Amino acid sequence: MPFQPRVAILVPAPDYYEKWQPAFARKAAALTGAGLIVEQRVWTDPGDLSGYDLILPLFAWGYQRDVVAWYALLDRLEADRLPVANPVPVLRWNSDKAYLSELAANGVAVVPTVEVAALDGASLATARGQLGADEVVVKPAISGGADGTHRIAEGDAIPADALGQRRLVQPLMPGILTDGEFSLFFFGGKFSHAIVKRPAAGDFRVQEQFGGRETGWEATTDAQALAAAALAAAPAPPVYARVDMVGDVAGKLHIMELELIEPSLFLHHAPDKGAAFGAAVSASLLS
Q1: Are strands 136-139 and 150-152 parallel, antiparallel or unpaired?
Q2: What are the backbone dihedrals phi and psi of residue 155, each rounded to the nearest 5 degrees, phi first?
Q3: Using the 8-state DSSP alphabet, how is residue 54 labeled?
Q4: pLDDT tens, 84-98?
Q5: pTM for this predicted structure
Q6: Which CATH number applies to 99-110+175-268: 3.30.230.30, 3.30.470.20, 3.30.420.40, 3.40.50.300?
Q7: Residue 69's CB: how many other CB atoms inside 10 A?
Q8: CA distance 109 to 280
């Protein structure tokens, strides 16, 4: 029997509130199809990981709610020189959305972003002025699943969970309400598929738990080029990547974020149902 590498997928604790198992099954099937043996380990308490040929943090959901534990895990993986995809430097870089300023400095079109060390009325007003926007979105720099993300119109009070906290302030991009948020997926550096996610009526969040829905999308050449330019800024080439982008009032696309840690990959929308994903992970074992 040929050698079959053992892969550990990091998953949430059993009492985690979001339903992650269906998406896990799709990813696990793609990896099994590529000849890998897939096992689960809880990311907050994974135990001994030294026996695995590769560790994938694909379901380290909730890391933004326990940042200390997350960074401690990354430090441990790096110190023990364990094989991880995406590589630990990529995971660490992608954990904090301060990387958006790096992308902007490299000439990549990103959603305009102002970082505020401790959000209050004065700093929010200053950020509005810098952005030239009356209606803004405020989010934590380390966030996921729209946790702590708020749409704030002029005159609205600052939500209690954001007051006095480090926050990113961005204009509410018109495209999110008219066209939705576009996500492009890359495996081994090659474009795989794309979707568009649209929010429920009256909302701006596209996540499923807030009523958002996704459909397949034929990514334009410009969208693919923008995504590739953003990924080129990562500390190392990612094995898997999701690039989220949204249009401005003129329809020009801007990077909203890069998902290089634990993204939903929507493999059921991929033409090959995830074969390219499995092949890219398998190939990373040889690099």
Answers
A1: antiparallel
A2: 95, -15
A3: E
A4: 999 999 999 999 999
A5: 0.92
A6: 3.30.470.20
A7: 15
A8: 27
Distances (CA, A) of 138 to 4, 202, 282: 46, 17, 38
Tally DSSP H helices, then E strands, for the chain: 8, 12
Task: For domain 6-92, give the CATH superfamily.
Answer: Class I glutamine amidotransferase (GATase) domain (3.40.50.880)
- SS3 of 120-188: the string is CHHHHHHHHHHHCCCCEEEECCCCCCCCCCEEECCCCCCCCCCCCCCEEEEECCHHHHHCCEEEEEEEC
User: Which phi and psi (to 5°) does residue 166 adopt?
Assistant: -65, 125
How does pLDDT run across 218-249, given as a tens digit for each residue? 999 999 999 999 999 999 999 999 999 999 98
**Contact indicator for 44, 76 with CB cutoff of 8 Å:** no
Top CATH class of 114-172 equals alpha beta
Distance in angstroms (rounded) separating the CA atoms of residues 75 and 94:
15
- Per residue in 46-78, pLDDT (tens digit) is 999 999 999 999 999 999 989 999 999 999 999
The full set of domain ranges for the chain reads 6-92, 99-110+175-268, 114-172
Give the integer Cα–Cα distance in Å for 274 and 27: 7
Residue 180: what residue type?
G
Tokens of 98: 């301060």
